[in-house]
């Protein structure tokens, strides 16, 4: 429950931590509605870590004695171990993770435990915990992105000269190197990696010491506590410190973009696995069958990833709506940030793990089918126009001419490679026997050697650049 609380006596399991201005207890249904322990237990170790830093600061500044500070730190560490061993599992009566820890601490160290909340509010406490949690999870997600990028590089390296149809408008456009196609996703994930790093800088600012909204009368040292928690700095305005959730929204934006990229790749995998495309075969370890049609093998992993993308997008939208009308400073609405944040983190991590496994070991590219696919269409038409343009024919004139050639071929049931040299020359005298080499798929791809293009030399260079990026992280 993210709200300002004041300490009450330990020992009474029904005692709440609110001021004694209240004359009656909460209605049981309202108590359940109000409680957040069901989900903010996710923050318990971060709450303990943050409280230990706060206790050290209180002792260092003389607000409490060094002996009290040591007891608080040791008691909190005992709670951490009890939780890890499954011995501390607070229930609904604890309301929130912060009260649960504080109550258990008082049971362990006695009245000294009641001093922990000195010069601190639940508002700056939960803000600190959430930032510690997200800072840690960003590191984990960035590590997963690197692992996925490594898998993409590994597959790209052995498929530089494997060709795959390239599409625009989902229509065959031009053949490309399969490695080039995979490295496009490497670039997307690189932006995701960098974006999370930039966001982490704004996550890593401490609100601890902002109090409920206005700071505190105690002579605290916010910078010391921030250093203890490895924050890069502290909020300069206490109102902003307790009410800011920009960092969470930014993370959800980045998480949504990660899911966009995973969903786009998923859509391609689903298409490529279909009989109509037949570009990949799914292995049994990463596919399921039908309960009624024994011949089917379903692309469950990419379908689930594609579906879960909407889940993360929804959390982003919910956070934007949550924040848009909140006056300063803290409002109970902000309790709603955690489930959105926690679920998005878990969803992104699960999807990255599943897609990494799928790409690394759950599919095979059908090279024979790919070779056939790039030879059975008119995706080399642009190269015919380029051929003529290189021989002095204005490109737009060449473009129109080739359009007529394609139309003629379609009417005759032919491909460009099927035309005789005489037929080529009848279309334009500039055509020579080397036209056949110019429109061969391997040549078409190799020739696109402009920087960032699909030419094999460029793709090999891109692979080296990608490896260098990974080595620097």
Q: Could you tell me the strand content as a percent range?
A: under 5%
Secondary structure category: mainly alpha
Distance between the termini: 38 Å
Order of helices and strands: HHHHHHEEHEHEHHEHHEHHHHHHH
Radius of gyration: 31 Å
Helix content: 55-70%
Q: Give the mean pLDDT.
A: 93
Q: How are the strands ordered across the major sheet?
A: 1-2
Secondary structure layout plus pairing:
Blueprint: H1 28-34, H2 37-40, H3 44-60, H4 66-84, H5 97-109, H6 122-157, E1 163-168, E2 171-177, H7 178-203, E3 205-206, H8 222-228, E4 233-234, H9 238-243, H10 246-273, E5 280-282, H11 300-324, H12 337-361, E6 363-365, H13 367-373, H14 381-389, H15 395-412, H16 421-427, H17 435-438, H18 441-446, H19 456-472
Parallel strand pairs: 3-4
Antiparallel strand pairs: 1-2, 5-6
Helix pairs in contact: 3-4, 3-6, 3-8, 4-5, 6-7, 6-12, 6-19, 7-10, 7-19, 10-11, 10-12, 11-12, 14-15
What does this protein structure show overall?
This protein has 19 helices and 6 strands. The chain is elongated, with a radius of gyration of 31 Å. By secondary structure, it is mainly α. Helix 6 packs antiparallel against helix 19 (456-472), helix 11 (300-324) runs antiparallel to helix 12 (337-361) and helix 14 packs antiparallel against helix 15 (395-412). It has helices at residues 28-34, 37-40, 44-60, 66-84, 97-109, 122-157, 178-203, 222-228, 238-243, 246-273, 300-324, 337-361, 367-373, 381-389, 395-412, 421-427, 435-438, 441-446, 456-472, and strands spanning 163-168, 171-177, 205-206, 233-234, 280-282, 363-365. Helix content is 59%, strand content 5%. The strands form 3 sheets. A two-stranded antiparallel ribbon has the order 1-2.
